[in-house]
Specification:
Structural class: alpha/beta
Shape: globular
CATH superfamily of the largest domain: Periplasmic binding protein-like II
Number of strands: 9
Helix content: 25-40%
CATH class of the largest domain: Alpha Beta
Oligomer: single chain
Distance between the termini: 43 Å
Number of helices: 15
Number of domains: 2
CATH architecture of the largest domain: 3-Layer(aba) Sandwich
């Protein structure tokens, strides 16, 4: 069985660097005859993410796997729906996209099929933390500080401390509704280094410090729930800064904001969304093929080119970064751009790029499984 990893390992950056020096190859043979007029229903979080999945995952999988059809459906991430299906013994969904804490909770509750690492021949090329007991990492995403560049001049926000500075940077602040991520961000805004955040939150003093810091921002907070709401609140002027999913900010810029929305990568919080197979599905074999296909190098590269969420396949990270235009880089001999790029420091729009991972906080799902209930109770009595 796949060993469980409590949270995204901080060794990801090291693993990517090693992969950059390794031969770029992987051979995955898809079983083209596995599906005969079978429909696979995949529950996702909708929006720009779902559109990218259709382009990079669903349509190519149908073309590669004879007779297979993929039907994407949007859901909120509420595991109660999955639990009800499993208990009835008639799952309507075959594969679900879940966040890391929900993957662990669903696995413990018996909602998901346990996976055998041997079923994924390319597992050694996947980022640390990708292969879990009941899931396989679909992509890496980050919660970032996003701001409306039109609201500020040359003096722009660069840190979470700036997010709290409403005198220097006027305007409302958008935060995702709930306790996760916000307490980590509050501690970093209060001067705690990202490497010490979870040690602080595990203590009574650290918990109180985070909540006190968040309460300071209370008069300025505007809550959001769905990923599309954060960039929209920037564009309509409701807030001047917000936490946001990096891919949703990029999608808003591509859809017409034309670079108006900016991202701060320093102290972003990164984690994975996972694919999980619903226990009791009659399409388990097809679902396993889907997981193998969508985590392949080619599929991961196509997905990141459709929306800048990070690949979990190290070969895809390499190919994305090597092929991306870098007009701002210094010219080499003869005026051409230097082809030798140090990807550990080169700017990137991917959360799983080495340059961004090295200055980000890895979300610790294991911490939240242990300490989450206490934090939720403490937060419920003081949330704005």
């Amino acid at each position: 069985m796949v060993a469980h990893t409590p949270g995204l390992s901080m060794s990801i950056t090291t693993a990517v660097k090693r992969a950059l020096a390794a031969p770029l190859y992987i051979a995955i043979a898809w079983n083209a005859g596995i599906a005969q007029a079978q429909t696979l229903t995949v529950a996702n979080f909708g929006g720009a993410n779902a559109a990218a999945q259709q382009l990079a995952f669903y349509t190519p999988f149908e073309a590669t796997t004879k007779g297979a059809k993929v039907r994407g459906v949007e859901y909120t991430g509420d595991l109660a729906q999955v639990k009800a299906m499993v208990e009835r013994g008639a799952p309507q969904w075959d594969v679900v996209e879940v966040e890391s804490t929900d993957l662990a909770a669903g696995c413990a509750a018996g909602l998901f099929v346990r996976l055998d690492r041997a079923a994924f021949p390319h597992a050694s090329m996947l980022l640390p933390g990708t292969a879990q007991e009941c899931g396989l990492g679909a992509f890496v995403w980050s919660t970032v500080l996003a701001f409306d560049s039109q609201r500020f001049g040359k003096d722009r926000p660069k840190t979470w401390a700036d997010f709290w500075d409403t005198q220097r940077f006027p305007g409302k602040r958008g935060l995702r509704k709930g306790v996760r991520y916000n307490l980590e961000i509050a501690l970093m805004a209060d001067g705690v280094h990202r490497r010490d955040v979870y040690a602080q939150l595990a203590s009574e003093a650290g918990m109180a410090r985070a909540i006190k810091k968040l309460e300071q921002l209370k008069p300025h907070i505007v809550w959001w729930e769905s990923g599309a709401q954060a960039p929209q609140k920037l564009l309509d002027g409701t807030v001047s800064m917000t936490t946001a999913f990096n891919g949703r900010v990029a999608a808003a810029n591509a859809a017409g904001a034309t670079g108006r929305l900016s991202i701060v990568w320093t102290d972003a919080i990164y984690e994975m969304d996972y694919w999980a197979i619903v226990r009791g599905t009659p399409q388990q074999a097809l679902a396993l093929e889907f997981l193998r296909f969508t985590t392949s190098e080619a599929a991961q590269l196509a997905f990141s080119q459709a929306i800048p969420y990070g690949p979990t396949h190290m070969g895809a990270i390499l190919r994305y970064e090597q092929n991306r235009p870098r007009s701002a880089e210094p010219a080499g001999p003869g005026g051409s751009h230097n082809p030798l790029i140090d990807l550990s420091i080169a700017p990137s729009d991917l959360p799983s790029a080495p340059a961004n991972l090295r200055k980000a906080l890895g979300f610790d799902a294991g911490f939240w499984r242990i300490h989450g209930p206490a934090l939720e109770r403490r937060w419920s009595g003081s949330a704005p």
